Amino acid sequence: MFAETGTKDEIVDRLFTVFQKRGFDGASLTELSRATGLGKSSLYHHFPDGKAQMAQAVLQRATELIDTEILQVAQMSGSMKTRIRKIIAMLNQIYENGRAPCVLAGMATSTLVGDLQQGLRKAFGNWSEAIESLAKESGMPPVRARHFAEDWIARLQGALILQAATGDAGVFTRALNSLLELAKEGVARDPV
Amino acid sequence: MFAETGTKDEIVDRLFTVFQKRGFDGASLTELSRATGLGKSSLYHHFPDGKAQMAQAVLQRATELIDTEILQVAQMSGSMKTRIRKIIAMLNQIYENGRAPCVLAGMATSTLVGDLQQGLRKAFGNWSEAIESLAKESGMPPVRARHFAEDWIARLQGALILQAATGDAGVFTRALNSLLELAKEGVARDPV
DNA sequence: GTCTATAATAGGATAGAC
DNA sequence: GTCTATCCTATTATAGAC
């Protein structure tokens, strides 16, 4: 899941953690410099357009992660329940049981959204498609599956905010586990 | 809902809009100054502890709004459906159909959470209690009602993030309207 | 490709007059 | 209670040596 040491990928991974914890506005070059072990000038060598470009690289990395750890797992062989559990475990790890913010949310609420928006859209779009594919497999019709995916991601994102504000991990855990609803019989049935 | 012109309450209302749109880290004194029509020194006259104190005043205002526009409405006379519709309309207005971020979320993802955290906790706590009271009235047992409230608020918060990232208003609208589930018959029944 | 040094600016905050 | 002017620091970014 993580990159080799010394590579550019590793630099991006380190930037990732800073943007995740601080958000776009809160992340300073000083902290990005410390986290990577590179001087500011070296960072500008790799990312001539500065912080915005670093953030975009991080967004690409986030999209990669979504593709490999969620979409690909969703399309693996094995029972639906098993695959969903695997996705839940991965998200639980990435978000440190809800204690770590989402890097996407930290970018979405930034001042520079304009430049980053297409990266954000792709990240959330891929994520949504991954969950949507699971929902369809469970028998949901297309529109309902798409809504389910978006709604579930929203719930997860909001849970991270609530936990950041209140400290209570319950909301996040419930949100994560609610994905298992897809593995239940009859979930695709229309409401009575 | 809004304060008289020239009062301190109106200053806070104007600060509110800046923190809502920019978040804590993104809000600069320059912009807060412009929004209020006061010089920086005048702002410091009203808020000697600076930006953090301004943010705290805004959080108090947000809590007031939650109490008067959600909790009080929830406890009004009238049918459950009517009261819920009123709450939905108010939130739809505050969040400009999902196009405006939540000021609470913009504080939760900030660097100075330490000082503001108790204010945030209270705001979300009151909000949750308001929704919880509705859920209980609909027949849900206490724990389930609390979970319903937290989960619904999380979903709404996440929907705002998704809409900020993707531009799609559907998630937010669905999240808002899902509160109407409480007005349906049999919602308190245990799942089959 | 990384460093030291240095700009140039924006940010938060204060002094003191009115 | 508001203003102008100023301060100090952090921040983003660049120049140029190695």
Quickly list its features.
homodimer; 192 residues; mainly alpha; Tetracycline Repressor, domain 2
Q: What can you see in these coordinates?
A:
Two copies of one chain form a homodimer. With 192 residues, chain A is an all-alpha fold. Chain A has a domain at 59-183: Tetracycline Repressor, domain 2 (Orthogonal Bundle), CATH 1.10.357. In chain A, 71% of the residues lie in helices and 0% in strands. Chain A has nine helices and no strands. The interface between A and B is large, with 41 and 41 residues.
CATH fold-level name of the domain at 59-183 in chain A: Tetracycline Repressor, domain 2
**Broad shape of chain A:** elongated
The greatest interface between two protein chains, and residues involved on each side, is: A-B, 41 and 41 residues
Relative strand content of chain A: under 5%
Radius of gyration of chain A: 18 Å
How are helices and strands ordered from N to C of chain A? HHHHHHHHH
Major β-sheet annotation of chain A: none
Kindly state the percentage of residues in helix of chain A: over 70%
CATH class term of the domain at 59-183 in chain A = Mainly Alpha
What is the name of the CATH architecture of the domain at 59-183 in chain A? Answer: Orthogonal Bundle
What is the overall number of helices of chain A? Answer: 9
Oligomer: homodimer
Name the CATH homologous superfamily of the domain at 59-183 in chain A: Tetracycline Repressor, domain 2
Whole-number mean pLDDT of chain A: 94
Protein structure class of chain A: mainly alpha
Enumerate the spans of chain A where pLDDT stays under 50 for 5 or more consecutive residues. none
Termini Cα gap of chain A: 43 Å
Tell me the total number of β-strands of chain A.
0
